[in-house]
Amino acid sequence: YGFSSWDIALLVLWGPIGFLPCFAFMWLLDKRGLRVTVLLTSFLMVLGTGLRCIPVSDLMLRRRLIHGGQMLNGLAGPTVMNAAPFLSTTWFSADERATATAIASMLSYLGGACAFLVGPLIVPAPNGTSPLLAAESGRAHIKDRIEIVLYAEFGVVCLIFSATLAYFPPRPPLPPSVAAASQRLSYRRSFCRLLSNLRFLMIALAYAIPLGVFAGWSGVLDLILTPVHVSQVDAGWIGFWSIVGGCVVGIAMARFADFIRGMLKLILLLLFSGATLSSTWFTLTCLNSITHLPLTTVTLYASCILLGVFLNSSVPIFFELFVETVYPVPEGITCGVVTFLSNMFMGVLLFFLTFYHTELSWFNWCLPGSCLLSLLLILCFRESYDRLYLDVVVSV
Q: Which residues cross the membrane (predicted)?
């Protein structure tokens, strides 16, 4: 399609740009509930994936349609990222909430893991080293494969929208817990409470900075690993296993948090200690000419996968800790503010990447620095469990 490196970076950048109106989606989730919000989100995804499939011969127009589709898909991001704690509180009891939050939030990451494989396995790499791919017939073959991916994603999104339209109740017949039935703060008072709560701002930064950096880093992982002679297929497998491992560990940690309550801070300290060590290992390995550390496929796989496991698995634990810290602020508003900050950091990094895409070594240093900063913030954070206290005391 004649895409430049700037176009590719912009395709990733539409995700954080889509979070600019996220406060409107937070209001909709708080006032209208899950069904209306999820229906609107699914419809935006249908429009976005549909725009990318319109067959036009004008390449400039096609590029604009693809970018427009990515923008609409980005607008669906706030609900996908923020609705998991709201869903778990609405539908699940106090001893199931963390697990439900983990499953609901990690499944979107699992879809991202599949994307790491779909691209390299279905669409061949136009690396210019193969005469077949350099020929015009090879370019046409690549274009046809891209079309297959776009049409398949459109079909899946249409199926999800149809299922949501057919059956997606906003809430259960009876509240599963005291917290689910309790009155929450208004939209305006919620923002005042969040912005004046220093403990929340501390833990929000501990989440937003490293997760935002990691999301931007993951989006251009194949470009980062190109200088160390790692193919896009290997980069795809690294991204896949890091996310899958994060999903498995995240759900396991959340289940552990449901069994032994009041351990969220300790779990985060362990996860970010591992993330700091893993990111430092990866960065120093890429500088093997200076550090003389062995630069092999095994070391790159191990360091990247461990980093993804530690960071991705922390997401549901963070979400539960946010809600517990600022209760009775609604879950959608709390997580919306945090994910907005995370996408803001991701957007800033990708913005610089669009202009300095030939210099990616600085991106690697952002990872261990952000993980270490988050570890220090978590260490200084004083945890509280206001929502859990209400459920336990009032239920008794």
A: 6-29, 36-55, 75-94, 106-123, 148-168, 198-217, 237-254, 266-284, 300-323, 335-356, 362-381
114: in domain: no
Q: Give the mean model confidence (pLDDT) for residues 385-389.
A: 80
d(CA 81, CA 89): 15
State both tokens at 29: 């989730």
Residue for token pair 């939209």? 187
- Split at pLDDT 50, 70, 90, the class of 129 is very low
Write out pLDDT tens, residues 210-247.
888 887 777 667 667 766 666 667 777 777 888 888 88
Contact 354, 6 (CB under 8 A): yes
> Which one-letter DSSP state was computed for residue 124?
P
Distance of CA 231 to the CA centre of its chain: 24
Sequence-distant (6+) residues with CB within 8 A of 91 are 100, 171, 172, 176
Q: What distance separates the 2 farthest-apart alpha carbons in the chain?
A: 73
Q: Do 21 and 156 fall into the same domain?
A: yes
- Residue 201, token pair as written in the block: 């701002």
The CATH number of the domain holding residue 226 is 1.20.1250.20
Co-location of 271 and 211 in the same domain: yes
In this structure, are residues 260 and 317 in contact, taking their beta carbons and an 8 Å threshold? Answer: no
Separation in Å, CA 188 to CA 31, 165, 227, 259: 13, 31, 49, 35
- Tell me, yes or no, whether 210 lies in a domain: yes
Give the side-chain half-sphere CA count within 13 A for 348.
10
Q: In terms of pTM, does the model score above 0.85?
A: no
- With b for 16 or more beta-carbon neighbours within 10 A and e for fewer, the 195-226 pattern comes to eeeeebbebbbbbbbbbbbbbbbbbbbbbbbe
Could you tell me if residue 176 is inside a domain?
A: no
Residue 99 lies in a domain: no
Question: Same domain, yes or no, for 157 and 254?
Answer: no
249 and 313 Cβ atoms separated by less than 8 Å: yes
Domain of residue 344, residue span: 187-395
